[in-house]
Write a structure and sequence with these properties.
mainly beta; Neuraminidase; globular
Length: 290
């Protein structure tokens, strides 16, 4: 196994990694930098788009472009023109929550979460939501402090997400036909791994590869929640992961610069990393159909 730093933009708060299998390119965001990036590993080039606010989540869009969560609303971004158009929101009645993390389900909906912006004293005022293909927002669940880690099993019938404030990830049964959730149960608690759950991705065998924020590691869990393995990373604040490469056998990892939170500078933080030789493959990301 080999871990290398990708020669691309250094983010303050890197997040939202997603691989476009058609283009052979990695997309990721810098939340506080208010930018979306596209990195082409073959060409060694990186392009960026400005956004009208902090981007909390993104997904690829069918036909090109992306769906973005910016503060408390949803937008589409046209990669050709750079136009960013609001399609739904505000999502919340309360001014405190913001949208944080999301994923596209296998039927083309964008599923996302809400979190309290007062992170140190967060209250459960966020929740779980979905943007359907007609740009309508539905609340699927409530009571989340800091949403994170959204991803779907290979068959699309299990939704994983986390409340990072509680160091806990959950699993739901997910109805692809209706977009409704049921049977919420605890999936894993990451406290013993030294950090909280952040962005995740699922491989073709159904393992959940989870960023352990503040834990300097990535953890892979079986569908029953048992720990399969961990990977130590060269920086502490790991924020999201995405399978990529022509065979989807590489794992791209975004990280955060601790100075953004008033912490001490850390060499190599804020960059994207790529891990080779994991012996597994991901599944292609679904695209938002709205």
């Amino acid at each position: 196994m080999k871990i290398e730093r990708v020669d691309t933009h250094r983010c303050g708060l890197g997040e939202g990694a997603v691989w476009d299998a058609d283009e052979g390119a990695l997309y990721f965001i810098d939340i506080w930098g208010e930018k979306v990036f596209r990195h082409d590993p073959a060409a060694g080039t990186t392009r960026s788009w400005n956004t009208p606010g902090h981007v909390g989540a993104m997904g690829l869009r069918e036909g090109g472009g992306a769906v973005l969560a910016i503060k408390d609303s949803l937008f589409t971004l046209d990669f050709e023109s750079g136009d960013c158009v609001k399609v739904a929101g505000p999502v919340f009645d309360n001014p405190r929550p913001t949208i944080n993390d999301g994923a596209v389900d296998r039927a083309g909906r964008f599923v996302f979460g809400g979190c309290d912006t007062e992170i140190e004293k967060a209250e459960p005022i966020g929740g779980l939501y979905a943007l359907d293909t007609g740009h309508r927002v539905t609340r699927l669940d409530s009571g989340t402090h800091l949403s994170n880690s959204h991803c779907f099993s290979p068959d699309g019938k299990t939704l994983y997400c986390a409340d990072s404030f509680l160091n806990t990830a959950y699993a739901y049964d997910y109805d692809l036909a209706t977009g409704q959730v049921s049977n919420k149960r605890e999936f894993v608690n990451t406290a013993e791994l030294g950090g909280c759950p952040d962005g995740s991705a699922v491989d073709a065998d159904g393992l959940v590869w989870m960023s352990i924020f503040e834990g300097a590691k990535i953890a892979a869990f079986r569908p029953d929640g048992t720990l399969e393995r961990t990977i130590d990373m060269p920086v502490r604040l790991i924020s999201s992961v995405a399978f990529g490469g022509a065979a989807l056998d590489l794992l791209y990892v975004t990280t955060i610069n601790p100075t953004e939170f008033g912490g001490e500078a850390e060499e190599g933080s804020g960059y994207v990393y790529v891990i080779e030789g994991l012996g597994t493959r991901g599944v292609p990301e679904a695209r938002y159909r709205g």
